Structure formats: structure tokens, C-alpha cells
Amino acid sequence: MAADLKGPIALTLASGSWALGTVYSKRNPTDTSPYAAAAAQMLVGGAAITVLGLLLGEASAWRLSPSGLGALAYLVVFGSIIGYTAYAYALRHASATIVGTYAYVNPVVAVLLGWLILDEAVTLRTFAAMALILGAVLMIQLAPKRVVLANPGRRSAAEA
Asked: What is the pTM assigned to this prediction?
């Protein structure tokens, strides 16, 4: 396999597994706290990626700097702890369809923050794309809700 295809394939598999995990989690709820579940998943995922990085020799490329440490701390607190816990909580209280819209909104927020805080260049085409994305998310939010019956093909004991 060409090296230039490994990244896109990995991203596609990661997105697909995230989507499957979201649907599975929604359909098979547990009594576990969303905070405990998020913590366990972050610990296991962090340990796995650390081992993989060490096996691939990535430790030699790591340089600790104040700005890098600040970025790491920000990603740990906001990107992982707060973000992932909020996602797990939302998944318990909203449909997977609604919760899944985060994947569309997050890049829009990132572009707007880069534009407002870091003075990054944003073109009219980018604003049009963001409007299209937000319009699609709004359509998802406003769509009529379906009523899903639990095991519609099964008869209850009272009917048998």
C-alpha cells in the first residue's frame, strides 16, 4: 500500500469506528457514569497510543517547550477531559443523530476562533461553506423526531 494512502485510510477507519461506537453506546446503555466511562477510555487510549509511539520511535522527536507544554495541557483539559465527558453525557441525553452533529460544528468553531483570536485569513468561500454546514446541522436539529419502538417484531408476554 502506498504510504500516501495510509493516513486517509486510518482517518476513515477512525471515523467509522467512532460512529459505530456512538451508535452502539446509544443502543446499549450501561449504569456506568459517563465521567467514569470517559476517564477509562482516555486512560486506555492514552496508554495504547503511548506504547505505539514508543514502538515507532517517536520519543526521540519529542521536544518539551513551554508553548508545547501549554498546548498539551489545553488539549488534555479541554479537548479530552471536558470535551469527551460532555460527549458521553450528551449521548445519554440526546439521540446519536443530534450528538453526532458535533463533528460538523467543531471545524466551524475552530475556523472562527482562528479568525477572531489569531487573525487567520478566512475567505468568502470559507464563510459560505460554514453557512452551508450550519444550515445542514440546523436541518438535522429541526427534523421531525421518529418514534422508535423497542423490539417492534417481538410480542410481549401478555400478548403471547
From this structure: 0.62
